[in-house]
Design a protein that fits this description.
Elements: E1 6-18, E2 24-31, E3 35-41, H1 43-46, E4 50-57, H2 65-74, E5 79-86, H3 89-92, E6 100-101, H4 103-106, E7 112-118, E8 123-125, H5 127-131, E9 169-171, E10 175-187, E11 192-196, E12 206-211, H6 233-241
Antiparallel strand pairs: 1-2, 1-12, 2-11, 3-4, 3-6, 4-5, 7-10, 7-12, 8-9, 10-11
Length: about 240
Amino acid sequence: MTSKIGLLGKKIGMTQVFEEDGEAVPVTVIQAGPCHVIGTRTQDRDGYSALVLGFDEKPVRLVNKPEAGAMKDTGVKPQRFIRELRLPADEVAKYQVGQVLAPKDVFADNAPIDVEGMSKGKGFQGVIKRHHMSGMRATHGAHEYFRHGGSIGCRLTPQRVHKGKRMAGQMGNEKVTVQNLQLLRILADDNVILVRGAIPGAPNDYVVVTNAATRAAYKRKGIGKEEVRSKNPLKASKKAAAGR
C-alpha cells in the first residue's frame, strides 16, 4: 500500500546512458503514461481515500459489459492496467475523473522512486537455486544426492514439518517492490522515464512507479563524500596500485 502519488507504466527494457562526467549508467526504460484518472475513493463512501488510475488503452472488442458500463460513466476509454493508489483525502481532491497524468506532472529528475512489479516466474525449483543452499559434496561414495534439500523432520516432537521451511517450490512470479531507485531522466515528449538500475519483471510487464515512501532525496553510498585516506603506508600503496 502506498501513500505517495505515482503512475502506472510498462517496462520496455534496459539500456545505458552517459553522464556528463563520462560514467556509463545502466538504466531501465519505463513507459510511464499517459495515465488516466478513472475514479476516486472517498472516506465517506468507501471507507478509505484513493486515486484510481488506468494505463494502456484496450480495444473495444476486448471489453465486457461491466467494464464498458464503468468506463461510460467516466468518459475514459477502457484501460488494460488499472490500479488504486492510496492517498490522503486532500491529495485525492486535487485530481478530477478524466484527467490525464504524465511523468512531468508527478516526478522530478534525480528523485527517489519505488517500483512495484511481478518478478519473473522460474517455475518449480529446488533448494539450491531457490534458497542458495550449498548441497552435498561431489566426492567418492556420494551419488544421486548432490542437490537434495536434506532432512526436514522434527522427530517425536512436534512430529511435523515446520511451516515456512525452506524447501523446493515455485520460484518467482510474486509481487516485488524495489525502493529508493534514482529517476535519472524524464523524456517528457515520449512519456518515458529512465531509472538507474534494474526493476522487477520482464520486458512489457506492467509496473507501478511511485515517489519514494521513505526518502525525500536520492543518495548513493559513497557519493559526495571525500574518501578518508589511510595512514598505513601499506594500505595506501595498495589503493594507489588499484587506481583509487
